[in-house]
Design a protein that fits this description.
It is globular, with a radius of gyration of 19 Å. The protein is an alpha/beta fold. 51% of the residues lie in helices and 9% in strands.
Length: 311
């Protein structure tokens, strides 16, 4: 009998890694990372990548599978995760999908429509408009035509704002219309939406404190030197998806001199808080999830109990 997949999601710094490792001590699982930053090699400190000991404690998948120069998409994730789920089940083990990239979870649950091809001319016009008016103004324009997408994007998330506006201008439809198929017509995915345990804080101040502690730990561990080493390669740029990951973007801009290095901590923590807010918004759009308060004293025990009860 195949063991059905389990899912563990939550905003950054909510305790997903510790919970997943605890689950692995109780259940015969292999972990599939659901994280658009952990796929990149050489980006270890700023992504809070599991340590070598943690990676050795239980089989992990979809970590360190791309060079930072390469792209990785939701469609690629769905293909990779679907294949891995079958392989793990064939070994008599249970797939445990863990992470905070909610678009990946949504795509796995509901499927993805074929995305429109890029249009360089439209993209160039949007970039020129942004140079004149600024990305926050274009974010406001996006909110008028695609409020669903705009809600989950920061006002300066230039790459994603540009793509969303490009889709709107080329198709006349919002990007959100392409992200998830109509559920009535979508085939059953490889994972049940009700197999999702969501770690969510009751008190945002608790999560904010953990975010600050984590960013301080990253800085102490040499995060700025990690970004310096990536820049020294010479083939990476600030516009790549990898370098637009939270923390990396702020460190890159500080090393460029766009912002003073003294402001990196404050800017990095603020950007991480914004990411957590967007992740929680995504989670709340998944009504079948089972919520566990990650700031509760017995959060880990609750996660284990719920996962062990799942068929």
């Amino acid at each position: 009998m195949k063991l059905s997949p389990l899912c563990l999601a939550g905003p950054t710094a909510s305790g997903k890694t510790a919970a997943a490792l605890a689950v692995a001590q109780r259940l015969p699982v292999e972990i599939i990372s659901v994280d658009s930053a952990l796929v990149y090699r050489g980006m270890d400190i700023g992504t809070a990548k599991p340590s070598a000991a943690e990676l050795a404690a239980v089989p992990h998948h979809l970590i360190d599978i791309r060079d930072p120069l390469q792209a990785y998409s939701a469609a690629m994730f769905v293909a990779d995760a679907t294949r891995l789920i079958g392989e793990i089940q064939a070994r008599g083990r249970r797939p445990l999908l863990v992470g905070g990239t909610m678009l990946y979870f949504k795509a796995l649950f509901d499927g993805l429509d074929a995305m429109p091809a890029a249009d360089p001319a439209v993209r160039a016009r949007i970039a020129a408009d942004a140079q004149q008016r600024g990305w926050p103004a274009l974010h406001a324009a996006l909110a008028a035509v695609d409020p669903t997408t705009a809600q989950r994007l920061a006002p300066n998330d230039s790459q994603r704002i540009q793509r969303a506006l490009e889709v709107w201008h080329t198709t006349g439809q919002p990007l959100s219309a392409f992200h998830v198929r109509d559920k009535a017509g979508a085939p059953d995915g490889p994972v049940r939406p009700d197999a999702l345990i969501s770690l969510e804080p009751q008190d945002r101040a608790w999560l904010h404190a953990r975010i600050a502690q984590r960013f301080d730990a990253m800085l102490a561990a040499g995060f700025v030197d990690e970004v310096r080493a990536l820049r020294a390669r010479g083939d990476l740029s600030a516009d790549l998806p990898s370098m637009r990951c939270v923390g990396y973007r702020q460190a890159w801009e500080s090393l460029d001199g766009t912002y003073p290095m003294a402001a990196l901590r404050e800017r990095g923590i603020a950007a991480t808080r914004q990411l957590a807010k967007r992740q929680i918004t995504w989670l709340r759009s998944m009504p079948q999830r089972q919520v566990v308060a990650c700031d509760a004293p017995d959060a880990l025990a609750q996660v284990l109990a719920r996962l062990e009860r799942m068929p």
